[in-house]
Structure formats: structure tokens, C-alpha cells
């Protein structure tokens, strides 16, 4: 074993030992302290063994920060406990456990299954539904009044924005500004009556759910717009803005995102959609190692790869 591997093992040992000594809220506060001080998302922005001293010194010296982020933690935790669902095989269940991890952000658990939601502020969407073993990397923004649904075994990159509302402003009216009842206006407490008694926008049109399928890979810096459905097996290139439905196993990129090509031929795609491997038990997935380790670029019959 070389020195690099030894260092990694040493770091991992202290990381596990230290993190197990902290509760979820302390990890959340520590993470935000590190990012505020060093502008980094990584645990490795500080020597592992000095984290505890850093945590207590920083919290004690900045009580306002500690109190504020404690409230933020409680708000997000309360939202996730009431509005987050984890899909195991074919059924969504309210997450039985919610915790925060320094590296992976918010973690949902149900039974032996987990999903990783990354790091975000309090969402405004109606609910978040995510499949087992799917993950969102680091920063993510959930905005809008609708629902965001993500399938199983999906890999979603950094800095993703899900928009679950129709954010278009009326262009055929006198003004594009919402002159009806407005929470922003009410919040400022500068005006005690709404501009207009009735909204100029039909509120039912504002809700537009986002749906991401199973086994989807989304690159970093992607925006998924309102009402969009991304099919199973899709790949979305980095920096894309997805404005329309993406067909299963398509490779999409650009602003707006357009189909570049399909990953496989039509026969293979249909077979994958039929077997729905993402619904398999983990033991079945491990058993079918041959299917997951064989290139499907040639004209293969998946039946020959499944035992």
C-alpha cells in the first residue's frame, strides 16, 4: 500500500469516527460554517482532526449565525419529514428517516433504501419524490408550486434548478407585473391592501410538475423547466435548459435542449423499457452482473444477458 492510499484510509477513519459523534443538525451547521469560511463544499477544506475545535469556536464566536442556521435546519427538516417521498421498486413512501451528511447533503431513508438530495434551501415546491439510490450532487434549487419527481438510480450533477411552476408573465395584458394578491407585497408591510382584489393570473396554471425518469444522468448547471418530463435512461448535457419532453434513452444538450441522438437502437430501448431493471431487488441486480457490464452498442438481445 502506497503513502497516498494510507493517507486516504487515515482520513476516512477520522472522518467516520468524527462524523458519528455529531448529530444531523451539528453536521449541517458545520457544513455551512466551512462553506462560508472557505467557499468549499468539501470536508477536506479542513484537517479532519481540527473540525471539532473549528465547529465549537465558530459557533461560540458567532451566535447569530448559529441561531439562524439552526432555524434553517429545522425548517428544511420539517419540510422533508412532511413532503419527501422515497420510491422503493414501484411504490412511493413517506421517508421514514431524514438526516444531513457533510458531503452528500440531505439523505432520505426508508427501510434499507436511501436517496441523496444534495444541499438546498427550503423548497417551495409541493413535494419532492425521489427513487432509491438516486442522488443530487451538492447545490440544487427547487422552486415553484408543483411537484418534483425523480426516478430510481438517477445521477444528477451540481447546481441544478428544478422549476415546477409556469413562470411566464402575461404578455397580452396591460402589465406583465402581478398586481393581484402578492405574498411579496404583503411581506414588505409597506402596503396593507393588495393592488387588485383578484389576481390577473389563473393560479391553476401556475402548477407544472417536473418529472425525471429512472436511470437518468443530468450534467451540472442544468435547468429543468416547468411541466417537463425526462424519460427513462436519458442523458442531459451540462449547461442545458430542458424545456420540452425528452424521449427515453435520448441524449439531449443545448439551450433549449435538443435531441442529439439515442443511446441505443430501437430494439434495445424497447427491451430496457420492458424489463424495468430499476424495479429489481438489489439481489437481482447483483446477480445480473453480465447485463450491466456488457456494452449494448451492438445489436444484442438482452434476453441472452439475463440469467
What is this structure's SSE topology?
Blueprint: H1 3-19, H2 24-38, H3 51-61, H4 63-83, E1 84-88, E2 91-94, E3 97-101, E4 105-110, E5 113-118, E6 127-131, E7 135-136, E8 140-143, E9 147-150, E10 155-156, E11 160-163, H5 183-188, E12 210-212, E13 217-218, E14 223-224, E15 229-230, E16 235-236, E17 241-242, E18 250-253, E19 258-262, H6 266-275, H7 282-287, H8 289-292
Parallel strand pairs: 1-6, 6-9, 7-10, 8-11, 9-12, 10-13, 11-14, 12-15, 13-16, 14-17, 16-18
Antiparallel strand pairs: 1-2, 3-4, 4-5, 18-19
Helix pairs in contact: 2-3, 2-4
Describe this structure in words.
By secondary structure, the protein is an alpha/beta fold. It folds into three domains: 1-61, no CATH class; 62-166 and 206-262, Hexapeptide repeat proteins (UDP N-Acetylglucosamine Acyltransferase, domain 1), CATH 2.160.10.10; 266-304, no CATH class. It has eight helices and 19 strands. It has helices at 3-19, 24-38, 51-61, 63-83, 183-188, 266-275, 282-287, 289-292; strands at 84-88, 91-94, 97-101, 105-110, 113-118, 127-131, 135-136, 140-143, 147-150, 155-156, 160-163, 210-212, 217-218, 223-224, 229-230, 235-236, 241-242, 250-253, 258-262. The strands form four sheets. The chain has a six-stranded mixed beta sheet. It has a six-stranded mixed beta sheet with strand order 7-10-13-16-18-19, with no helix packed on it. A hairpin with a 2-residue loop joins strand 4 and strand 5. Helix 2 packs across helix 4. It starts with a helix and ends in a 15-residue tail after the last helix. Residues 1-14 have low confidence and may be disordered.
